[in-house]
Amino acid sequence: MSTRTTPADVPAAEERSRRTWVLAITSIASLLVVLDALVVATALTAIRTDLGASITELEWTVNGYGLSFAVLLMTAAAAGDRWGRRRVFAAGVALFTLASLVCAVAPDVETLIAARVVQGAGAAFIMPLALALLSAAFPPALRPRALGVFGSVSGVAVPLGPLVGGAVVEGVSWPWIFWINVPLGAALLVLALTRVEESRGPDRTLDLPGLLLAGAGTFGLMWALVQGGSAGWAVAGLVAIGLFVAWQRRAAHPMLPLHLFRSRRFAAANVVIFFHWASAFGVLFFIAQFVQEALGYGPLAAGLALAPWGLTTVIVPQWVGRSVGRFGERPFIVAGLGLHSLAMVWIALVAHPAAGYAAIAAPLVLSGTGIAMCLPAVQSAVLTSVAPQFLGKASGAFSAMRQLGGAFGVAVLVVGFTAAGSYATPEEFSNGFTAAVLTGAGLAAAGALAGAVIPRKG
Q1: Which contacts (CB < 8 Å, 24+ apart) does range 289-293 have?
Q2: Do 458 and 385 form a contact (C-beta atoms < 8 A)?
């Protein structure tokens, strides 16, 4: 017996197809953004040899990306509301792709650093708009599941970064970690312009004073972190943030409406993502080094050693996305960060050069599971706690808190590491590593406490 397609089925099928394209495009774009924040780590030695880079210059190939990324996130969200989220997202993809090309052909380290700064700017115009476009495409009932898929794809970049970097460096050469972005970015640009519908925020007025104050404040705080805690820059950043808050209270068209923070869900979830990414990013920075410095693995082997962690970031978020609507976000946030914190304590107790990789394999899986449980839940808490017209600005604030948390986590864990150990011997590194991961456990516990105040329902 044949089935007939009714006219009502056609728009429904078209809508499902449109949502699928939006989910695929935004997820892959997010994957590239997160991947490029990490992929350079295992290529630094090759870059130093080929370009004659100093230690400071190598640091800036990483920090330049994160600095421009964090500074421009709020600007990107406001620009998307003003000129169109799809248009600004596409511009970010184009800028990211062009900067990746310059990175790949850079003749010297100065050019590479400059291109990395531009690449981070492109990433800043991708990430918050990806979340806003995704949230606009899916109704509230379907949004948590879509965010679960989005979290799976972007989350896998965390362990995949060192693996891809090590494989490319050993198999070809370091410029290819950037060449990979060029065809993918070009394809994403075409698809974004042809498969994603435009959306805007209701407030088309650009809050220029707010943009300048938010950018200055974020820059001051980020610069203080990447420079190792410069007090002057930190104070300047805090002053600018204070002025930003004061201006937002009286601005006719604020870039970040402060009434959003009256929602306990929104405010607590932004605190959660700060500590979530501080712990996850900081711990990954040191675990990748522990496997190489203490256990003697090469770059590719180190990436493979993190693969069990990566598998959890693919599987777990999809399950969480399907379950958040039934159980709410709070159980997954608290349990996820609690598991990650316990895993870090476990690793601190067993990590030693003589112990071998087997001693940390199980807690790595536990840690990855916890991190993967938290991310889609906290994204859902933020994006379902605001009205549709504020999605862009909420996404910008959320993404900015995530980037600031990552920089903060690395800086704090480095302090813990240097207080207890050094790179002199594998044993000395293990001592510092133990202090660093215990610091990461504390950051995760702080995030779990913040998650505990999120209401069961919005």
Answers
A1: 289/429, 289/433, 290/351, 290/429, 290/430, 290/433, 291/357, 293/423, 293/426, 293/429
A2: yes
Over residues 212-231, the pLDDT tens digits come to: 887 788 778 777 766 665 67
pTM summary value: 0.75
Rounded to an integer, what distance in angstroms lies between the CA atom of residue 188 and that of residue 354?
Answer: 46
Residue 350 tokens read as: 């067993």
Quote the CA–CA distance of 10 and 56 in Å, as a whole number: 58
Query: pLDDT tens for residues 336-352?
Result: 999 999 999 999 998 88
- The pLDDT, as a whole number, for residue 201 is 67
In the numeric block, which tokens belong to residue 248?
């937002």
How many whole angstroms from its chain centre is CA 52? 30
